[in-house]
Amino acid sequence: GDNSDCHNCVAHSTNNSHNIKWVNCRFKQAASHGYDLNNNANYISFINCQFDNNGGDGLYHDHTSFGLAYKCLFNDNAGNGAYYQTSARVVQCVFYNNGTDGARINSSGAVVCGCVFEDNASDGLYLTGGGTAVVTDCVSTGNGAYGWNIGSNSETHLWNCHSYGNSSGEK
Hints:
By secondary structure, the chain is mainly beta.
C-alpha cells in the first residue's frame, strides 16, 4: 500500500518486473545492497523512500530500462547511495554520508534535478555513459573527491548548480 515500511528488505534478481512503484518505504541494514534491482525490470519508481545503513549500495539499479527516485534519502550506506546503470530520473533527493559516491549514474539520458550531495566519501555525483545528461538546481558540498565528476558524457548540461567545499573540486 501507500504506507509500506520495508525494514531490512533486499530483493535480489527481480526478473521481468514492470511498472512497480515503491512509496514511503525504508530499505535499511541489508548485508549487501538495500535494494538490488536487475534483469529486465522496467519502469521502477521509488517515491519518498529511504535507503540507509546498508552493506553495499543503498539502491543498485542495473540492466533495467528506466528508474525514478523522487524525494528519497540515501544515507550512511557502505557503497554508493544509489547506483544506476540505466536511464535515470533523480528528483529532489538527498545523498548524505555514503561510503563511495553519493550517486553514480552510468547511462545516457540521465536527468538529475533539485538534489543535494553532501559529505560522501568520494564524488557527490559521478556521471558517465555517453549521450546527453542534464543536472539542474543541485548542490554538492563536503564530498571526499569531486562535487560533480562528469566522465565520458558527450554532452552534459549543469544548470544553476553549486559545488563547494569538495576535496577535489569539480571535474
